[in-house]
Structure formats: structure tokens, C-alpha cells
Automatic annotation (TrEMBL):
It comes from the Eukaryota. The keyword Transmembrane applies. It comes from Panurus biarmicus. The gene is Lsmem1. This is LSME1 protein. Keywords: Membrane, Transmembrane, Transmembrane helix. The chain crosses the membrane at residues 64-89. The keyword Transmembrane helix applies. InterPro entries: DUF4577. It holds the Pfam family DUF4577.
Length: 130
């Protein structure tokens, strides 16, 4: 009695499965690594035969985007620094005004103390006479 074989002889399905898995992994890698715009550019590059013209356009666009971002960053930081300097000067002026007020109030308090002493002396003298 012969035992039936549990193994099936399928012609090259294993090789096709490997190719399908590799192709799927490549597509998944493209989706994960490349942004949407870059993916379209890569697809166009594959369709045109990969001449590299689309990559040069992407590089130029990236450089322009970098310089625009850099310029905007510089302008914003310059505006912030100017605002901080303005606030420093305003604060300095306010502190100067407050210190001058304090000095004038100190002088007024000193004068009031002198007047108080004079009044007390006068009251003390008038009590002694009575």
C-alpha cells in the first residue's frame, strides 16, 4: 500500500509569492519614507525613465522653500528683538519716573517731619508757660 503524499507540487508559486511580497514591501516603503508630493514625483520619474529632471525640480523647490522659511524666520526674530528693546526702554522710563516720584515724596516726608518737630516744640513751650 502506498501512502498518499501530503506535499503538493505547485509550479513556481513560491517564487511568485516572493516577488509579490518584495513588491508590496517596496510600495509600503515608498509610502512611509516619501511624503505625498515626493511620491508623485518618484512615480513620474519612474514613468519618464528616471532622467532625474523631476529630482532637480524638487531640489530647486526645496531650496526656494528653505530660503523663504529662513527669510521669514529672520524677519520674525528681528521684529521680536525690536519689540524686546522697545519694552526695555519703556520699562527704563517707567522706573526713572517712579524713582523721581519717590525722591520727591521723600523730600516731602522730610519737610513734614521738620514741621511736626516745630509744632511739637511750640506746643511744649506753650505748656511750659502755662
Amino acid at each position: 500500500m502506498e501512502r498518499p503524499s501530503l506535499e503538493f507540487n505547485l509550479p513556481d508559486t513560491h517564487e511568485e509569492g516572493k516577488l509579490y511580497v518584495v513588491d508590496s514591501l517596496n510600495n509600503l516603503n515608498k509610502l512611509n519614507v516619501c511624503p505625498a508630493e515626493s511620491q508623485h514625483s518618484l512615480d513620474e520619474g519612474e514613468n519618464t525613465g528616471g532622467t532625474g529632471e523631476s529630482m532637480a525640480g524638487i531640489n530647486t523647490r526645496n531650496q526656494c522653500l528653505f530660503f523663504i522659511t529662513f527669510t521669514l524666520t529672520l524677519i520674525i526674530s528681528l521684529a521680536l528683538v525690536s519689540f524686546v528693546i522697545f519694552l526695555i526702554f519703556q520699562t527704563r522710563n517707567e522706573v526713572d519716573q517712579i524713582s523721581s516720584r519717590l525722591l520727591s515724596e521723600k523730600k516731602n516726608i522730610e519737610e513734614l517731619k521738620k514741621l511736626n518737630n516745630i509744632i511739637l516744640k511750640h506746643l511744649n513751650q506753650s505748656r511750659i508757660k502755662e
